[in-house]
Asp23/Gls24 family envelope stress response protein
Amino acid sequence: MTENAGVRHGGAPGSRGRTVIADVVVEKIAGMAARDVRGVYALGSGFARSMGSVRERMPGAGSGKSVTRGVSVEVGELQAAIDLEIVVDYGVSITDVAGAVRENVISAVERLAGREVVEVNIMVSDVKLPDEEDEGEERQRIQ
């Protein structure tokens, strides 16, 4: 019979060590979850969207819209707090959209990042009217 007297196993492998989740990870999760809600036109203020649109056209600046635009978070070891700035489509109930965004963001962050979401603050900064052009988009004059 062999004994492992000198070897100590300190609990389950999942409890050995620390996992640190960067703020940007939670920002991306929250941004994607907010955008998935029907009635959310965009995240961020008009100015932030305009600047992002200019930045996206610059060579080497990366492709696609910034997922974290309009998202601000504080992430601790166990909890997270999230602030969102959204633009809603005209005709939708803003309170319903805000509630759905809050639910979707909380669910996604708690499921994917394992952090309890203590609050999701939502600032509706604009309403996208049906006949408005996107800010930052230039109408092409010559084809």
The longest strand covers residues 116-128. The radius of gyration is 21 Å.
